[in-house]
Amino acid sequence: MSLVAHNISLTIDGRALLRQVSLDVRRGEVLGLLGPNGSGKTTLLRALSGELVPTSGEVRLLAQDIRDIRLKEQARHRAVMPQNSNTSFGFRSWDIVLMGRHAHIGRNGETMRDYEVVHQCLHRTDTAKFADRIYPTLSGGERSRVTLARALAQETTFLLLDEPTASLDPLHQRQVLELARNLAAEGCGVLTILHDLNLASAFCDRVGILNRGELVVLNETDKAMAPETLEKVFGTPFLKVHVEGRARPAFVMG
After folding, report:
1. Which residues form the signal peptide (predicted)?
2. How high is the pLDDT of residue 108?
3. Which contiguous run of DSSP H or E holds residue 43?
4. Based on the domain organization, do 166 and 247 belong to the same domain?
């Protein structure tokens, strides 16, 4: 089973945001999306999640057009960690993560199973220590990790992460992407938008690179991240460096 964008284009207010993009998110892998600001990464993620409807083409989940699947059913199979998730209400971090169980909670309300999942997700994201703190009082990085915990609490087959490392310190960047790899090993399909080429190189099985709404390349990470491709897309040269003791190469601007 996979989550598939088939030849999708999306135009809003006369501006083409995506142009005939085809991409699949596979169970058991981490797929990274790279590209300059404004290249269409978040738009593609929102289309894959069902939030945006393509002008042409289709997104398929469970071998069905995602538009034909009820929202609650979608939420049982794909979870989204948005780039920004702010609330001014005084919810505790625990309450925010519990919201991720909505698609699983029946008429009789929350169960011990729901509480166990919340507890596990808080621990997996290193947020249990502030489970009782009010969400708006947390730092940007702490809120980001709580938002990730909420997405994990949905217990879905596919996880879509929009810049999950953007506000994190290096330790938590590593922890979040190691968690993504662990989830993939457990059978989840993870798509993550990244700006750090070295994180993409280190943690992604495949990489797709977008530019001006077009998918320039989609391939295994080492093949996709060719220096000539990166220079063409980002407008600056890169050197590919093999570091002793590391299986994956690093990239530095030339």
Report:
1. none
2. 86
3. helix 41-49
4. yes
